[in-house]
Amino acid sequence: MLRITGIKIRIPHDSKALTEEIRRRAKGQKPLDYRIVRRSVDARKKPDLYYVYTIDASFKEEKKLLRGRGSRWQVIEDKEYRFPYRNDFPGTKRPRPVIVGFGPAGIFAGLMLARAGYAPLILERGDEVDRRSRQVEDFFEGNELDPESNVQFGEGGAGTFSDGKLNTAVKDPFGRNRFVLREFVSHGAPEDILYDAKPHVGTDILRRIVRSMREEILSLGGEIRFRTKMTRLVCKDNKITGLVCQKDVREEIIPADVVILAPGHSARDTFSTLYSQGLLMTPKAFAIGIRVEHPARMINESMYGDGYPEELPAANYRLTHQCDDGRGVYSFCMCPGGYVVNSSSEKGCLCVNGMSESGRDAANSNSAIIVSVTPEDFPSDHPLAGIEFQRTWERKAYELCRGQIPVQLYRDFRENRTSVSLGEFSPMIKGQWAFGNLRECLPDMVSADIIEGMETFGKKISGYDRDDTLFSGVETRTSSPLRIERDKDYQSNITGLFPCGEGAGYAGGITSAAMDGIRVAEAAASYMNQWKGRGSDE
User: Fold this and answer.
1) How many CA atoms lie within 13 A of 397 on its CB side?
2) Quick one: average pLDDT of 335-356?
3) 517 confidence band (pLDDT: 50, 70, 90)
4) What are the tens digits of pLDDT across the range 283-309?
5) Cα–Cα distance measured from residue 166 to residue 236, given in angstroms and rounded to the nearest whole number
6) Residue 163 and residue 205: Cα distance in Å, rounded?
7) What is the distance, to the nearest Å, from the Cα of residue 60 to the centroid of all Cα atoms in its chain?
8) Close Cβ partners of 67 (under 8 Å, ≥ 6 residues apart)
């Protein structure tokens, strides 16, 4: 097949336009077949808007077409990722591999091992996705938080209640990224995630996808235990031999000599327990700030121009600014046509996140505006100090409005005063909210940098720094505040324990976490296959 880049089609267009443009570039040759590899929106010359395509196409006379075509035409081979291992020791008495956590990393690690015949046992502290969704909706309506099953914990992980972004900047020479996207499609995602420059699925579709993936794992001999929390490792001579787990009030010791640890970035009690047992971890930088909301139409018009075609998706944006104090302030997890959600997971603490349905058709678009913080900002050099830093501001946010999400107009944030009324639009929030002064639950330097950033962002997107822009907070769970160290074989300092995913500090979103889960599943399978031919009790 031939890959052709830089094909521009004016928006709007009909379904024949792309085929005709390919044919024109091929000097009249009609493609035998083609597929879209990438599609993005070019809005640099508003109101003239274009889709820019990269396509793979096959032609009858490909060699002839390549002559004199330059770098925009190239021969490609479609190399599909394949998991490189199979279970070489079925029927032995060795315990099966155990996976702790059923977010993206745990799901894909489990799927790979199940398909390869290892029959993994997966432990998830929260509930399966349908029951979890009901619990989350009840919490949004004002009912009590369940600290074990909420926006952060449960089947699918924190990403289940998000915009469902599937883009990643991780380098991928082995094809794991495309494999992850294809798996999502095979389990119910729309095919456009395979080629959109900024793919997403939305929380409604994500819930169906994780349910389908769970069913496949079970059909292949895997086992998943919900409401089952790992409380302690069992080790001998610095090797993992089992896990202590709790379901309701009952404890159980599960034998295990291979454990994939994928707990998510909010498993603070788990991190504390693991640290006390000697697991090596270090603090790492992350970012904190607020959620900002604007009318979705205002963002669309600023990005696409007045009178933009309705066929265009709700507009995305990415903003960055280097502050005078040397810190970076930037947009994060932007949710076009979405909601701000109460994403708390600990009683007495409050944090927020963003979420969109697949249609991205809510009245507002929101994004986190966050400021980088480093271990030097934490209260000590302890590996868990970043967690305490997060808790400090989450407790203040909880106390500020008695457990409701603090909301404030940008003008009042700038003037350091509590808002008393809304401006021209209302917040789109899942959860209870009240007016509060967010300056009281953020470090002074973060507040100052947010203001500096907003003034700059207003010069990039018309109306971004308008007085009635809505702030809510606090946003603290942008990434894990620590890293669980692992070696070149992906094992921790405890033999047989494989940390992975966002919680362990090796990913930054759904796709990168899934890719890390695959990578660690490969390492765990390689480790297990070294046992071939050895005694089952060795």
Assistant:
1) 32
2) 97
3) very high
4) 999 999 999 999 999 999 999 999 899
5) 40
6) 10
7) 42
8) none
pLDDT in tens, 26-67: 888 889 999 999 999 999 999 899 999 999 999 988 888 887
| Alpha-carbon span 110 to 213, nearest angstrom | 9
Which residues have C-beta within 8 Å of that of residue 77, sequence separation ≥ 6? none
CB 263 within 8 A of CB 341: no
Query: How far apart (Å, rounded) are the C-alpha atoms in residues 214 and 198?
Result: 26
Rounded-to-integer distance, Cα 382 and Cα 386, Å: 8
Q: Hey, which bits of 70-136 come out as E strands? A: 73-75, 98-100, 121-124
Percent of the chain topping pLDDT 70: 97
Burial of 176 (0-12, 13-18, 19+ CB in 10 A): buried
Q: Are 227 and 149 in contact (CB under 8 A)?
A: yes
Other CB atoms within 10 A of residue 291 CB = 29
Instruction: At 172, list the tokens.
Output: 């991928």
Q: Phi and psi dihedrals of 197, rounded to 5?
A: -65, -30
The Cα 363–Cα 336 span in angstroms is: 9
User: Could you report how far apart the first and last alpha carbons of the chain are, in Å?
Assistant: 51
Cis peptide before 201 (omega within 30 of 0): no
Reported as a single tens digit per residue, the pLDDT across 100-123 is 999 999 999 999 999 999 999 999
- State phi, psi for 459 to the nearest 5 degrees: -85, -15
DSSP character at residue 144? P
The answer to whether 499 and 261 are in contact (CB under 8 A) is: yes
- Of 219, 214, 150, nearest to 188 (Cα)? 214
Cα distance between residue 105 and residue 34, in whole Å: 32
How would you class 402 by CB atoms within 10 Å of its CB: exposed for 0-12, middle for 13-18, buried for 19 or more? exposed
Does residue 1 have a pLDDT over 90? no
Question: Which among 235, 116, 233 has a CA at the least distance from the CA of 525?
Answer: 116
Burial classification of residue 54, based on how many CB atoms lie within 10 Å of its CB (0-12 exposed, 13-18 middle, 19 or more buried): middle
* Tally of CB atoms within 10 A around 17: 14
| Cβ-contact 290, 471 below 8 angstroms | yes
Q: Which residues contact 181 (CB under 8 A, 6 or more apart)?
A: 166, 189, 193, 194, 199, 511
Q: What is the pLDDT of residue 299?
A: 97
CA–CA separation, 275 and 339 (whole Å): 36
Question: Within a 10 A sphere around the Cβ of 284, how many other Cβ atoms?
Answer: 15
Q: What is the pLDDT of residues 393-437, one digit of tens each?
A: 999 999 999 999 999 999 999 999 999 999 999 999 999 999 999
Q: Compute the distance between CA of residue 94 and CA of residue 336 in angstroms, rounded to an integer.
A: 49
C-beta atoms surrounding 36 within 10 Å: 17
- Rounded distance, CA 400 to CA 430, Å? 18
Q: Dihedral (C-alpha) 204, 210, 212, 218: value to the nearest 10 degrees?
A: -160
At 11, give phi and psi (nearest 5°): -100, 135
Q: Where are the beta strands (DSSP E) in 78-134?
A: 98-100, 121-124
